[in-house]
Amino acid sequence: MLTAAISFLLTAGGVAVAGLRAWRRRFRSATRWFAVALLPAGLYLTGLFPLATKIGRAFGDWAAKLVFDPRVWTGIALLGVSAALLLATRWMDRRGAVEATPERPSAAGPAPERPAVAQAPKAPGKPQKQTGKRDDGLGDFSDIEEILRKRGI
User: Fold this and answer.
1) How many beta carbons lie within 10 A of that of residue 15, not counting itself?
2) What percent of the chain is modeled with pLDDT above 70?
3) Are 11 and 38 in contact (CB under 8 A)?
4) Contact at 8 Å (CB) between 14 and 34?
5) CB of 49 within 8 A of CB of 7?
C-alpha cells in the first residue's frame, strides 16, 4: 500500500512540474517532465517494483560474494586481463605495429602508369600552352621515346 502511495505521489508531483513548465511556454521540457512523471505509476501498475526489489537483493548477494569469494576475484582478474589485451591490440593496430598489410596484393601486378579515367578538358575560354611536345596522353613515356630515337629504334 505504501508503494502505491509513493508512486502516485511521485507521478502527481511530476505532472505538477510539467504543468508549470507548460504554463511558462516550455513545451518540450514539459513533455519530458510528463513522460518521466508517468514512470512511477506505470511501474507500480505493471508490478515491476517487486521485480526491482528482487534484482536489488540479487545484486546485493552478488556483491557480498564479491568481497569474500576468491573465485570471483579470479574471474575479475581474467576479465581485466582480457580487456587489457583487447585494448593493447587495438592500440597497436592503430599504430600499424601488428600487421603490415601491403597496399596492393602481389597478384595485381604493378600500378598502371596512366590513370584509367581521362582528365576533363580545359575550359574553352582559356588558351592552352603549346610546349612543342605532343600531348597525346603519353607524357610519361617521353623519356623512353627520346632514348629509343637516339638508338634508332
Assistant:
1) 16
2) 71
3) yes
4) yes
5) yes
